Amino acid sequence: GAGVSQSPSNKVTEKGKDVELRCDPISGHTALYWYRQSLGQGLEFLIYFQGNSAPDKSGLPSDRFSAERTGGSVSTLTIQRTQQEDSAVYLCASSYASGRAGELFFGEGSRLTVL
Amino acid sequence: KNQVEQSPQSLIILEGKNCTLQCNYTVSPFSNLRWYKQDTGRGPVSLTIMTFSENTKSNGRYTATLDADTKQSSLHITASQLSDSASYICVVSSNQAGTALIFGKGTTLSVSS
């Protein structure tokens, strides 16, 4: 596609339910990032995929959070047993090169609300 | 500790006026500094990326400056338009191995008519 695509754009769920958020990066981009943005806060790094290398999971806040990237393209962020503090906008970004040098292209985000 | 501080937190200006947003950082080692514009409900969009050797970079009415010695950057917006209303985020990249992109909390700019 022309840009980074995320789905769903909005998700409302009940506390304790599992949710899956999807990111389809720009074709050919080897780097993929997940960030979380809470109201009034800066972007919080969650996880980073680069090619076939082991992902950098250092930003995941708890073991309820996990992410996969299949075939070096689409990524899914899974939050198990959601809590109210998980409510935020989850942003995905992709880059042609390593994020330290390459420009990041962001999706529109998935807004998660946990009731 | 690697940090990026932005000021002011929010700003209101009249259409047609200029404004300057500030970014101070303590990130080391430094790789590059980026400014992003994030419209409400949208993802951030890159405005500029500057490396250590670059002092200034322009993108239309947006001009970013970088002083690597004092670890300060500014984003100057000329002849503001209503569409400039957004959050402006400063991001500093480190040369550390891995994914060290440190985000500021942003400056929320409101341009009124």
Mean pLDDT across the residues of chain A is: 91
CA radius of gyration of chain A is 13 Å
Largest sheet of chain B: 6 strands, mixed
Q: How far apart are the first and last residues' alpha carbons of chain B, in Å?
A: 41 Å
User: What class would the helix/strand composition of chain A place it in?
Assistant: mainly beta
Task: Name the quaternary structure.
Answer: heterodimer
Q: What is the 3D shape of chain A?
A: globular
Q: What's the pLDDT, averaged over the residues of chain B?
A: 93
Q: Tell how many strands the DSSP assignment of chain B holds.
A: 11
The tally of beta strands of chain A, per DSSP, is: 10
Q: Greatest interface and its residue counts?
A: A-B, 24 and 24 residues
The tally of helices of chain A reads: 0
Radius of gyration of chain B: 14 Å
- Report the helical percentage of chain A: under 10%
Please report the number of helical segments of chain B.
Answer: 0
Summarize the structure.
The complex is a heterodimer of chains A (115) and B (113). Chain A contains no helices and ten strands. Chain A is mostly beta strands.
Describe this entry's structure for a reader.
- The complex is a heterodimer of chains A (115) and B (113).
- In chain A, a hairpin with a 5-residue loop joins strand 6 and strand 7.
- The relative contact order of chain A is 0.33.
- By secondary structure, chain A is mostly beta strands.
- Chain A contains no helices and ten strands.
- Chain A has strands spanning 5-7, 10-13, 19-24, 31-37, 43-50, 65-69, 75-79, 88-95, 105-106, 110-114.
- In chain B, strand 4 and strand 5 (45-51) form a beta hairpin.
- Chain B is globular and about 45 Å long.
- Classes of the chains: A mainly beta (115), B mainly beta (113).
- The A-B interface holds A 4, 33, 35, 40-45, 48, 56, 58, 91, 93, 99-101, 103-109 and B 4, 31-32, 34, 36, 41-46, 49, 89, 93-95, 98-101, 103-106.
